[in-house]
Structure formats: C-alpha cells, structure tokens
Automatic annotation (TrEMBL):
Gene Ontology CC annotations of this record: cytoplasm; nucleus
Organism: Mucor saturninus
Nudix hydrolase domain mapped to chain residues: 27-153
Taxonomic classification: Eukaryota, Fungi, Fungi incertae sedis, Mucoromycota, Mucoromycotina
InterPro entries noted in UniProt: DDP-like_NUDIX (IPR047198), NUDIX_hydrolase-like_dom_sf (IPR015797), NUDIX_hydrolase_CS (IPR020084), NUDIX_hydrolase_dom (IPR000086)
Full protein name: Nudix hydrolase domain-containing protein
Keywords annotated in UniProt: Hydrolase, Magnesium, Metal-binding
Gene3D superfamilies: Nucleoside Triphosphate Pyrophosphohydrolase
Amino acid sequence: MGSNTSYTDYPAEARTGRENQVYDDSNIRQVAGCIAIDPNTNKVLIISSSKRENVWVLPKGGWEDDETKEQAAARETYEEAGVRGQIGNLVGSFIDYNYYGEPKSNVWFYELKVEEICSQWPESSFRQRKWCNFDEAMEYLRFKPFMQRAILASSFAPK
C-alpha cells in the first residue's frame, strides 16, 4: 500500500504531547513505526533511544487522530531518523510491555523503502542513526525483543 504523504507535509519541529494520540478500547496507546530499508545498500536503519543511553531502537511514535497509521509511521520515521521514502507492507503489530509486564503500547510496523536520507531532521540534535545488516540489527535491538520480532517478520529477514 502506497502513501499519499508528500515530503512537504512534515513540519520542521517534531510533534509533542499526547492529547491527540490514538488509544484502543483497552486504553493501550497505538504507536506506528518503520523498518526503514535502504534499497541501495540493503541495510536497515536503527536510531539511538531518547530515553536510555547505549540502547538502539527502530523509529516509532504515537499515532495521532488526524492521520492514518501509515502517515504516522512515515512522519515518526522522518522526525526521529531523518529518512523519507515509500511506505510498504504492514509487517504486523507488536505489544510493547512496561517494566511490570503490562501492555504499554501496540506498535504497528511498516516497511519503508528509503528514498531520501536527510542531513538535518527534527530530532537530529539528540539522536544518532546507524545502518545495519540483519545480524547487526538483531544484536543492537537485543534490549527490545518486540523490535527483533518485527525485523524477523519483515522482508529484511534472511529467507
């Protein structure tokens, strides 16, 4: 499924706050993100966590009520990682649990075929990004098992 989001739709500043966030019937926050794959290098993009030092994650963030899940995934990937491209297939939805083992969010991951890598992006002042092969991505994402499951469910996983 393609995205109708044009690159000019993105503001220079990242969205903040949760007042427009989508929650399900169980009051679980709905989140969207991307497995961003560079077709030229066949590497996947990971970014530094904004909360924990030396932890790497896939770009994702809150789905807001004025956008589709696909639009939220593309927007968050641009805001956090500075890449834009074509949204592809839904990889699946994955539950992220809090420290107490309670569902914190339901994360919808899409594949994104990278078409542009920006030198500046809304969160570039405090996020690093890394391009990884499959084994590297699985190692860097070791603290985020649900993100490892998403990578394994994607076309990026070895056949």
